[in-house]
Amino acid sequence: MSALSQEAIIEAVKSQFEGKIIAEGGHNGQSYIVIDRDDLIEISKYLKETPELKFDMLSDVTAVDHLLMEVDEIPERYAVVYQLTSFELGHRFRVKVPVPEEDTVVPSLYEVWRAASWGERETHDMYGIEFDGNPDLRRLLMPSDYDGFPLRKDYPLRGRGERDDFQQIRRGEDFDAEDQSTEEQSPHLTT
Amino acid sequence: MSRLKDPEIRQLEQNPEPRVFLTEEEDELGGKRMVLNMGPQHPATHGTLRVVLVTEGERVVEADCEIGYLHTGFEKLGEYMTYTQFITVTDRMNYLSAINNNVGYALACEELLGIEVPERAQVLRVLLCEISRIADHILCCGLQAMDLGAFSAMLWCFEEREKIYDIMELVCGARLTTSYTRIGGLFRDVPEEFDGKVNQLLKGMPGVLDELETMLIGNRIFEDRLHGIGVIKKEEALNWGMSGPIARASGLAYDVRKSRPYSGYENYDFDVPTQTAGDSWARFVQRMAEMRESLKIIQQALAKLKPGPINVENKKMNLPEKADVYQNIESLIHHFKQIMLGHGVQPVRGTEIYTPTEAPNGELGFYIVSDGEMNPYRVRVRPPSIYNYAMFTQLTPGCMISDIVAILSSLNVIAGELDR
Asked: Rounded to an integer, what distance in angstroms lies between the CA atom of residue B233 and that of residue B255?
């Protein structure tokens, strides 16, 4: 068996899951399908276990926040993006799952590919998307006591940092150890 | 919402169930079990990683990784920078082989725009990527030896790495943060003495590798501490999404240069060596074998290097010669149109690309989504280290504390690309 073309992969999934493919698209020889989160595990297992597709490797899990760029096929705010690779056959594919803003839960693919473990953790950390079934969904890169999800489009590039927690002393000003009202004194950088 | 809340409330809100390493019952075993905190500052972590170990005497029962100490928000930064500006950020990911990151990112942008760079630029990219791969691998092998007590091997490796960095300095003026690629080509052509320097490297390197092997292979302490330590099976490597020398040391012949050739890798004659054992020793042997393959590629690339342009002809994609910008008005306008706000390369709105390349640590992928503006809508970096390191907690139960050091150095986790 050899590598399939992108059209052949879409065709194979379409024939098996009639009507479950919400949209398809692609650019420069790479295609993707958009599927509903309820069908995610079923379709993933099919992609992994079918001999002619055999996507035995999950290369990456990430997400895109569509707040500032609405696209036709994904009206929801977020889309979780899975990059699939077939080690044996050598083809690649992409699967997108739309996630609405008010209910950011997606089933975890931990049981299908173990690689989802940290990939989902990072996506959770950066976008606040919950992966139902991931055994260890703690924050990965940000501190555990951090609130906010940095890669969301409504999160500013610059904001209050740790140094804003301390009182700032400028030349010519008297240092007042009693005064703890640092909130008014520190210039907040916001964009 | 402010982050400065009452610490007690914050604790309850943020961590409803803080992870308990020792239950009260286990703690009452009279200190039989102990929690040991390795890192974030520890000589064996080569960066800032933290591993929390639960030990019984010298033996590790459970381990937990905490990463993110070097998190700098590169992906967020990318959304606020132009496509060209982000190249400097890619240097800081895997800082031991910055050229590979530059090339990976430039390739992703070129694929998104649908352009192909000229022959000479492709050959130079391959050449420098492989030189950089040797620098990365030789340092990793040296540090692996250093972590197990063979300090002089590390110094030999460092000496060779310095020679490679001299070549980098000659090519682009910087030793570590190269920023050598541009979208559609390269920053500048290599100087005349480049060929001679690379030939010198080609002549000297096999001897150094032989010397290193003579010193370490067969060394009783070195071998005993690596054999059978941190074994990753082939199926596990595939299931956990591992790539690069770590996957190949487990018998998974996965190499992006072969499976999805880029920059003309299909025209080079090289093998993908694999090992079967999948332990720390196999990973050391694997890196040594890969360096020899890289030398083969460098030799072929050097023969292929013919004079020619190094940037695409398309004036809407390339940057003008810097010297010309100061001299004539056309180049100045060209420069302005590429650099100033609201101009520059702007891929079609809604297009996206995922481009994997073979970095020294494994599959380095860039996933870029464009909204038609001059800065990317989303830049996702798929660093090899994060997927290679995710399985670490599964490798540790049952091994000794000193084995943790051996496993960590054989995985070659680079905190810069792990945390981004």
From this structure: 17
Q: Where are the domains of chain A?
A: 6-162+179-185
* For testing contact with chain B, the best of A80, A145, A154, A160 (most B CBs within 10 A): A145
Q: Is B87 within a domain? A: yes
Strand ordering across the sheet containing A78-85: A21-27, A30-35, A92-99, A78-85, A57-65
Question: Cβ distance A47 to A59 under 8 Å?
Answer: no
Split into its structural domains, chain B has a count of 1
State in words which class domain A6-162+179-185 has: alpha beta
Residue numbers of B between 315 and 374 with CB closer than 8 Å to A: 348-354, 356, 363, 365, 367, 369, 371
pLDDT digits 0-9 by tens, B70-84: 888 899 999 998 888
CATH number at residue B84: 1.10.645.10
Q: Which of B80, B241, B420 sits opposite A59 (nearest CB)?
A: B241
Range of the domain at B217: 75-314+346-381
pLDDT in tens, A57-90: 999 999 999 988 888 888 888 999 999 999 888 8
Is position B43 within any domain? no
Q: What is the mean pLDDT of residues A28-38?
A: 90
Say if residues B172 and B132 touch (Cβ distance below 8 Å). no
Residue A2 has pLDDT above 80, yes or no: no
